[in-house]
Design a protein that fits this description.
This protein has about 80 residues and is an all-beta fold. The chain has strands spanning about 10, 15-20, 25, 40, 50, 55-60, 70, 75.
Length: about 80
């Protein structure tokens, strides 16, 4: 994973769960400036994990491409 950037996801819209296509990613909580510390989450062999800061439930979905999410708006890109 060293060659690819780690995707960052947020739950600004308050979704019950977010499906992700990556097993390793960062949760930022909400879009800046309301984000929490950016937490690295590694699903390993699990299919879901809850962020310890914001309690967002992330579920791995093998149908999604790596670095994508459903809803797509949960992907955060730092355009700065």
């Amino acid at each position: 994973m060293a060659d690819a950037p780690i995707p960052h996801f947020h739950n600004t819209d308050g979704h019950t769960a977010i499906a992700v296509g990556s097993r390793e990613f960062m949760c930022i909580g909400a879009r800046p400036p309301y984000d929490h510390p950016h937490i690295f989450l590694d699903l390993g062999s699990d299919d879901e994990k809850i962020c310890p800061y914001c309690s967002t439930l992330y579920k791995f979905d093998a149908r999604l491409a790596a670095g994508t999410a459903e809803p797509a708006s949960a992907l955060w890109n730092d355009a700065a």
